[in-house]
Every structure is written in structure tokens, then in C-alpha cells.
Amino acid sequence: MKAAFDLFSFGNRESGASAGIHPVCGGGATISVGVLLLIGFLTRPAAAVAFLFLESLWVSEWGTAWIWERRPFHQLSPVHNPTR
């Protein structure tokens, strides 16, 4: 049973060992894309990378809104208020 548990533990030790480098790599990538966009070099690939990064942030936020954040959209919807 121990072997099956190790198979599905997803390597806690390995992921924890590299936890210090992930913010550095993410920050370096963000700054690099920003600098490339500012100086106008490789603008289309840099813009594509920036778009994919922002898209991934947007997708990761799906389903995490609180109910009071969704209420204005619910009140403006034609299903809730058919007179509009």
C-alpha cells in the first residue's frame, strides 16, 4: 500500500525543493517580456507570451468569485429583469 501512496503523492519533496526558484523565474519572465515590449524588439512574440500569461490568470479565476461580486451582473441580465 505504501508504493501506491508514493505513486500518487506527486513528489512533495521534489516540488518543495524547487519552490524558491519559481518566483524568480516568473518575475524574470515578466520583466523580460515587459522590456521586450518597451524597446520594441520581438514585439509580436512578446505580446503573444503576455497574452497567454494574462489569459492563464483569467482562466484560473473562473469560479472563484464571491456571490456578491456576481449580483450586479445578475441584476442586469434580461432573465432577471425582462423589462430591459
Task: Identify the notable features of this structure and list them briefly.
flat, 0% strand, 5 helices, 84 residues, mainly alpha, single chain
Explain this structure to me?
The chain is mainly alpha-helical and 84 residues long. The protein has one domain (24-84). The chain has helices spanning 2-7, 12-17, 22-39, 43-60, 67-76. Helix 3 packs across helix 4 (43-60). The longest helix has 18 residues, at 22-39. The mean pLDDT is 72.
Chain-wise SSE layout:
Elements: H1 2-7, H2 12-17, H3 22-39, H4 43-60, H5 67-76
Helix pairs in contact: 3-4
Strands, total number: 0
Tell me the overall shape.
Answer: flat
Contiguous low-pLDDT stretches (5 residues minimum) are: none
Count up the helices: 5
> H/E series, N to C?
HHHHH
Cα-atom radius of gyration = 21 Å
Mean pLDDT: 72
Largest sheet: none
In terms of DSSP E residues, the strand content is under 5%
Number of separate structural domains: 1
Question: Residue share in helices?
Answer: 55-70%
Secondary structure category? mainly alpha
Distance between the termini: 61 Å
Q: What's a quick, concise take on this entry?
A:
With 84 residues, the chain is mainly α.
